[in-house]
Amino acid sequence: MWFKKDEKQSVDNDKISLEEKDVNRGFNEEHELFHDTSSINSDKASSVGSVGHTKRTLYNRHLQLIAIGGSIGTGLFVTIGTTGLVNGGPLGLLLSYCISTLLILLLTTATGEMVSYMPVDAPFLNMAGRVIDPAFEAASSVNFWIMQSLYIPFEITAVNGIIHFWRDDYSPAITLVIQIVIYAAINV
Questions:
Q1: Which residues pair with residue 164 across a beta bridge?
Q2: Are 158 and 74 in contact (CB under 8 A)?
Q3: Which of 25, 7, 17 is nearest to 134 (CA)?
Q4: Of 117, 139, 143, whose CA–CA distance to 129 is shortest?
Q5: Mean pLDDT of 157-173
Q6: Angle at which helices 172-187 and 134-166 pack, to 10 degrees?
Q7: pTM, entire model
């Protein structure tokens, strides 16, 4: 809500009621989101939450480490030896890692801010539908599914490339079968 400087606003620290009218989509509904801000305003975050509510126990340092940890993956290890270190040197490798990690940190922090304002399940997808358009949510869902389904072949190829860097005397089918069994065991 936007207030003029002269208007005074009062905020109840226990619950904040937010109203949202979706005029652009033709709906005339009012949605209310209630946030329990007692754990935010207290010095010590409570780890006990009721069923169906978000436990507010993550600090800013936790979110930043999640973002940085999400940027370290198989692609980093594959490209370090093949292109990054050879072409750019150690400084170029460090700078490119810092820039890509910064972008991921900004994206994760922005998503965390949006979810703390409007807590929803699957924030990337549901926020796209709430903020932009339901069609954009559907397109984002399809893109996310395609991206996630391509991770397994990429991981298999990357692991074979890393192992073949040290040993060429075995068949790639060995690691292929081992990885497929591991992925099936995890998902079943």
A1: none
A2: yes
A3: 25
A4: 139
A5: 83
A6: 140
A7: 0.49
